[in-house]
Amino acid sequence: MYRFLFSSKWLGYLLLAAIFATACVFLGRWQMDRRAETLAEINRVVSNYSATPVPFADVREEFSQLDPGKEWTQVELKGSYLVDGQRIVRNRPLNGQPGYEVVVPFRLATGETVVIDRGWLPIGNKNPGSPDSVPAPPAGEVTAVVRLKHAEPELQRGAPEGQLASIDLAAYSAQLGYPLLTGAYGQLASETPPAAEMPVAFPKPSTEEGTHLSYSLQWFAFGVLMFVGFGYAARQQARNAAIDAEDDDESPEAVLHSAAAAARRRSRAPKKRRKATAEEEEDALLDAQGY
Predict the structure, then answer these.
(1) pLDDT at 155
(2) Pick from 52, 161, 209, 210: CA 20 to 30 A from residue 38's CA?
(3) In angstroms, rounded to a whole number, what is the distance separating the alpha carbons of residues 67 and 59?
(4) DSSP string, 17-49
């Protein structure tokens, strides 16, 4: 009944179903991996974002090589801004709006220098390619609370003077001409004394998991449904083949053949003996008596 499944046509269908299901499994696992990364990021935000700030001395090594689990950790820094080294970072959208970020070197009391990202600025209307104004950081001794962020990779594109293509701390240090701690920078949370005017503060990162789980389950379901569809198609093929076989048995040639066979059977059947009438019985009696 299902011998057709071993034909080259149906084996090809099975191969296509297997390839499609394998692709669905791959895409489902990819979505699960993305979900795992998202959950790890959410865990870092929940654990570190609003935790009590720690002194710089306790996390000094993180500014040289940041442990991913320490991202968003709040750190208290004491020192002063080096305003001459301030730069604008290009192409930094926020909530769908194009703009810039303001980074400034911060000289610590220990003599080491870190980079603080003070916030976001919208694109300017007066000078294309730059913000209309850049708020100055507070002068003198400052206590800043920052959240640790990874240094960014170098982008293979230039930037106008006074601007950076990315927060590539090694390239930034080379441009300034003095050493920076290049493993991490600080995203500003607060500073004391406060500046008269501030860039737009960064919003808290989202802690929503997103749709990765539902997408992964959908891909797995598509893979299973492909085999379900293959089985249904095979079942329909088998049923159609059975119906075609029955139709062949009921074709006109088959009906004529059956009728002829029935007629032959009737012709061979023995004839029933007819019962004699009263006159025939009387004649037979007289013949027997010699009349």
Answers:
(1) 87
(2) 52
(3) 10
(4) HHHHHHHHHHHHHHHHHHHHHHHHHHHHHHHHT
Model's pTM, two decimal places? 0.68
Q: State the pLDDT at residue 158.
A: 81
Q: What is the pLDDT of residue 232?
A: 87
The per-residue pLDDT for 114 is 97
Tell me the DSSP string of the chain.
Answer: --GGGGSHHHHHHHHHHHHHHHHHHHHHHHHHHHHHHHHHHHHHHHHHTTSPPEEGGGGGGGGTS--GGGTT-EEEEEEEE-GGG-EEES---BTTB-EEEEEEEEEETTS-EEEEEEEEEEPPSSSTTS-S--PPPPPSSEEEEEEEEEPPPPPSS---TTEESS--HHHHHHHHTS----SEEEEEEEEESPPSS-PBPPPPPP----SHHHHHHHHHHHHHHHHHHHHHHHHHHHHHHHHHHHHHHTSHHHHHHHHHHHHHHHHTSPPPPPPPPHHHHHHHHHHHHT-
pLDDT computed for residue 276 by the predictor: 61
* Domains of the chain, residue spans: 1-48+212-261, 50-192
C-alpha separations of 254 from 81, 242, 266 in Å: 102, 17, 19
- In angstroms, the CA 232 to CA 228 distance is 6
Question: Could you say which of 3.30.360, 3.40.390, 3.40.50, 2.40.50 is the CATH number of the domain covering 50-192?
Answer: 2.40.50
Which parts of the chain have pLDDT scores under 70? 1, 247-291
